[in-house]
């Protein structure tokens, strides 16, 4: 074996070790959360922690017995799907317009809104929605969560639209296509992978957002992430049920995150340019 091949083998081995260590560090809290959800309640906060234990479903039973979990899950699904759809509805043409005109300040403005703390919007929204009687409605939650999903959609799709050669659009204009038809018939199919990724990321961020759902919802529209707060009390915290709720809340984003990889490597835009 040559020195170059030997060094390459060691570099590959070291990269593998680094990835394993990084993955273990990142996934350790998630694994601990899932394992704790199957522990008896008194063992969740035991010190030293119990590694070997008899699994039980009592935390999940307690969760479904004390809370309308399915109702909260439906509320989360309605708000998340609605805000994701709203973000796609306005974000796709907005990203295309920014890419088409090369005027970037609207995209920067949405990014600034996304980077600002949620409390900056919360009080004005609360006052506004209260004046029109929309506190506790799905509409208020969907509109507020759109502030999260819209910037994500725009900034994920901008590089995808920019990667399409101008010659493709110019050829369509020569054939008599309007800008709207170019977006619908040409640009969107070419950035389908980007649309899928932006939709999944918007779904994950909206699903996990806590602040707006806590303040703007009521008992009928409370989402899972806000309902989990009920297990934290002043005198005691139901750690077992809280871990079970966190596990179930994290399940949809984790499943969707696994789907992102398939879309990221699809290479639809590259294939179109080659054609």
Automatic annotation (TrEMBL):
Coiled coil: none
Cross-referenced CDD domains: TM_PBP2
Keyword annotations of the record: Cell membrane, Membrane, Transmembrane, Transmembrane helix, Transport
Topology of the protein relative to the lipid bilayer: Multi-pass membrane protein
All copies of domain ABC transmembrane type-1, residue ranges: 73-260
GO-annotated cellular components: plasma membrane
Family matches, as InterPro entries: BP-dep_ABC_trans_perm (IPR050901), MetI-like (IPR000515), MetI-like_sf (IPR035906)
Localisation: Cell membrane
Pfam families named among the record's database cross-references: BPD_transp_1
Transmembrane segments: 12-35, 72-96, 108-129, 135-158, 190-210, 239-260
Domain of life: Bacteria
GO biological process, one term: transmembrane transport
Family: Belongs to the binding-protein-dependent transport system permease family.
Designated name of the protein: Sugar ABC transporter permease
Natural source organism: Bradyrhizobium manausense
């Amino acid at each position: 074996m040559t020195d170059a091949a030997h060094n390459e083998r060691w570099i590959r081995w070291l990269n593998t070790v680094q990835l394993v260590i990084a993955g273990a560090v990142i996934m350790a809290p998630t694994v601990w959360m899932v394992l704790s959800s199957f522990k008896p309640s008194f063992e969740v906060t035991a010190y030293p922690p119990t590694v070997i234990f008899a699994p039980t479903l009592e935390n999940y039973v307690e969760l479904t017995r004390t809370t309308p979990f399915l109702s909260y899950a439906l509320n989360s699904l309605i708000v998340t799907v609605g805000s994701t759809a709203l973000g796609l509805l306005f974000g796709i043409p907005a990203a295309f317009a920014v890419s088409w005109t090369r005027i970037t300040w609207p995209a920067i403005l949405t990014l600034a809104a996304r980077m600002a703390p949620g409390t900056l919007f919360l009080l004005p929204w609360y006052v506004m929605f209260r004046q029109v009687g929309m506190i506790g409605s799905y509409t208020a939650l969907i509109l507020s969560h759109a502030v999260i999903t819209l910037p994500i959609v725009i900034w994920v799709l901008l590089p995808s639209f920019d990667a399409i050669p101008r010659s493709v659009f110019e050829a369509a204009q020569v054939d008599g296509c309007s800008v709207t038809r170019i977006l619908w018939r040409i640009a969107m199919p070419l950035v389908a992978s980007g649309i899928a990724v932006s939709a999944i990321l918007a779904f994950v961020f909206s699903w996990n957002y806590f602040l707006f759902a806590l303040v703007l919802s009521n008992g009928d529209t409370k989402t899972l992430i806000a309902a989990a707060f009920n297990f934290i009390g002043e005198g005691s915290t139901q750690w077992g049920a809280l871990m079970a709720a966190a596990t179930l809340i994290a399940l949809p984003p984790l499943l969707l995150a696994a789907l992102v990889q398939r879309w990221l490597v699809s290479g639809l835009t590259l294939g179109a340019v080659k054609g």
